[in-house]
Amino acid sequence: MNEHSPAKNSVRRILAASLIGTTIEFFDFYIYATAAVLVFPKLFFPAVDPTSSTLESLATFALAFFARPLGAAIFGHFGDRKGRKATLVAALMTMGPSTVAIGLLPGYQSIGIAAPLLLALFRFGQGLGLGGEWGGAVLLATENAPEGKKAWYGMFPQLGAPIGFLLSTGIFFMLSKLMTDADFLNYGWRIPFIASAVLVWLGLFIRLRITETPEFMKVVDNNTRVKVPVAEVFTKNTKAITLGTLITITTFLLFYLMTVFTLSWGTNALHIPKATFLVMQMVSMLFFGIGIPLSSVIADKYGRNRMLMIATVAIILFGLVFAPLFSTGNVFVTATFLSLGMFLMGLTYGPIGTALAEIFPASVRYTGASLAFTLAGILGASLTPYLATTLATKYGLAYVGYYLSVASFVTLLALLAARPLMKVK
């Protein structure tokens, strides 16, 4: 049928829908991460010790990562039972209102303990929505991809990460330049949260116009849908969900070390001006964006597993030079460090979606890929800013690098064990 074989315009629409959706979702997610370092410690977690306030704020940041597997299970169930399109719309409409609500939330001085409690609730909503967003966006792209280009198609939703980060960081940078610190803390930080409503509407408009993926339609036509996809994943695809989770740990750990932790440590411990550090992070995102398509081309030519192994070995080595590169306080050295780390991030992030999708059968692929990705978020990212700050404070920056190298070695072992599951060339 024609609708099962989209024309060129339909393919472009599908890729645009996968890209715009993840861009919006990551934009929402990153403005929280930035605010968790720059604003929330003062507004929602007042304490005598600034470090304690920051750690409490980062704890709410971690909350979303524990909500994401629940979102993956819920949205994955409907994605495997009812279809990718409708589920993606629902995921977007879960995260978007949560983000806007954060922008409208009064501070601790206005409503007391209710402020951090509501912040935690809305943060949970963000995580719930993103748990169902990512897997569906990847499948929307890869299940429409021709043979030999699955990693290339699968990198379009991955590009939403650097684009979303650039948008969110760029807005915070402009606001910090246009406003006094007092005005920014009073109301300026709310602007990107509330403005995300416009982006959600745009994403909704695009996604309502897409068609269902051919591979899901085959599942429907062949009557192979399973009643409880999450049970099927853990009982019949145990190896895939375990190795898929371990394979993705390093991706999360590296990203949140290079964004949330470095922003906090760089502006507080190294005393680099906030605006300067945000500019350096935006530059590093360009290298992140370069690494994603580069790794995807290599992954299509030589195999997803091989590309991921190369990237993981490079990250192990990067962990060993983490402290020397990030302890000088020199702007040029720090910018080089951030750019190198984010380039490596692009190399591992580009093919990871395609790699996770292809180790699960189509009947449980939405649930399986989403759960592997989100469970890795708990292990590799949820407490990373908190643990890294604790390690750096008590033992020094070198131990943050060791933390990264050890986790990367675990990922390398998982990649070796997962070779039979992947389409190794």
From TrEMBL:
Segments passing through the bilayer: 14-38, 58-79, 86-105, 111-130, 151-175, 187-208, 240-263, 275-295, 307-326, 332-357, 369-388, 400-418
Superkingdom of origin: Bacteria
Keyword Secreted appears in the UniProt entry: no
Protein name: MHS family MFS transporter
Subcellular location(s) of the protein: Cell membrane
Keywords tagged on the record: Cell membrane, Membrane, Transmembrane, Transmembrane helix, Transport
Membrane topology: Multi-pass membrane protein
SUPFAM superfamilies with a match to the protein in the record: MFS general substrate transporter
InterPro entries linked to this entry: MFS, MFS_dom, MFS_trans_sf
PROSITE patterns attached to this UniProt entry: MFS (PS50850)
GO cellular component terms attached to this protein's record: plasma membrane
The UniProt record lists the keyword Cell membrane: yes
Domain Major facilitator superfamily (MFS) profile: 14-423
Species whose genome carries this gene: Mucilaginibacter straminoryzae
Gene3D superfamilies registered for this protein in UniProt: MFS general substrate transporter like domains
Molecular function GO terms recorded: transmembrane transporter activity
